Amino acid sequence: MFELTPETPEDWWEVEALYDLCFAPGREALSSYRLRDDVPPVDGLCVVARDEGGILAGAIRFWPVRVGGAEALLLGPVAVHPTYQGEGLGGYLILDSLDRARDGGWARVMLVGDAPYYSRFGFRRLTDVEMPPPTNPERVLGVALKAGAWDGVSGLVTRAA
Ligand SMILES: CC(C)(COP(=O)(O)OP(=O)(O)OC[C@H]1O[C@@H](n2cnc3c(N)ncnc32)[C@H](O)[C@@H]1OP(=O)(O)O)[C@@H](O)C(=O)NCCC(=O)NCCS
């Protein structure tokens, strides 16, 4: 029903429009966006989902970040068009991209989001990881793609060089 393809530069503004539709106004004021400023997203992990008519139904992006001295992936934004929400597309985009991240050699993924949603994909609160303020620490979540990948990883999340 949906075709998933890597996001291309031609998709960029369409994905931005989807995010504008799905998130509250002012989303770019969030501290997670400062971690994305002037850093390219991760090629091959940013994916768009289109319906049979070619209409954009969902999108997910990833950026590289550093936590203490360790590399991590920052998942997000991820969004599904309201007309397609609740049909499993968000979960599919997340699980598919986590598989590809693992295959690409990434060890750990973090995000700022709702634990009740992301816990079903294995995300747990990262109590030793600090997002730039203002961020509710309860929303700082991570999943290990390799066993123990978050063990001993702590500190402030900063932009990848
Ligand atoms: C969050 C989002 C990407 C999920 O995509 P989706 O395709 O609707 O999700 P799925 O169909 O895979 O899963 C739906 C389930 O997730 C639940 N869910 C969705 N958002 C949730 C949230 N914020 N908190 C808790 N549960 C949530 C739904 O209630 C539903 O539960 P059910 O399986 O028990 O019925 C989509 O709802 C969306 O774009 N929301 C607006 C943007 C957003 O909040 N993005 C995430 C930022 S943290």
TrEMBL record:
It comes from the Bacteria. Gene3D superfamilies: 3.40.630.30. Pfam families: Acetyltransf_7. Residues 2-146 form the N-acetyltransferase domain. SUPFAM superfamilies: Acyl-CoA N-acyltransferases (Nat). The keyword Transport does not apply. One of its GO terms (molecular function) is acyltransferase activity, transferring groups other than amino-acyl groups. Keywords: Transferase. The keyword Transferase applies. This is N-acetyltransferase.
